[in-house]
């Protein structure tokens, strides 16, 4: 679990990122979760955009993605979800304690 301080730090880092995934009408599928796991391993911090035609609530989508990928939800703002997962091979982000 992330502390408030760590979440603030990650929110600041994520500010300039563009969403690299979009969740639309199909919702969250296994294939999307696999791709998100790969992206998190490479980048550690990603943004996911929830499109307006998505049938599920953005908080539900955030929870499904985080649980599926084993990631932490840093924040949901508007229709954008910020996810963080520490990389095993490619660690770049050093979290404050």
UniProtKB/TrEMBL annotation:
Xref: SMART domains: CRS1_YhbY
Top-rank lineage group of the source organism: Bacteria
Domain CRM: 1-96
PROSITE patterns linked to this entry: CRM
Keywords: RNA-binding
InterPro entries for the chain: RNA-binding_CRM, RNA-binding_domain, RNA-binding_YhbY, YhbY-like_sf
Short name of any one Pfam family annotated for the protein: CRS1_YhbY
The UniProt record lists the keyword RNA-binding: yes
Signal peptide positions (record): none
Keyword Cytoplasm tagged: no
GO MF, one annotated term: RNA binding
Protein name (record): Ribosome assembly RNA-binding protein YhbY
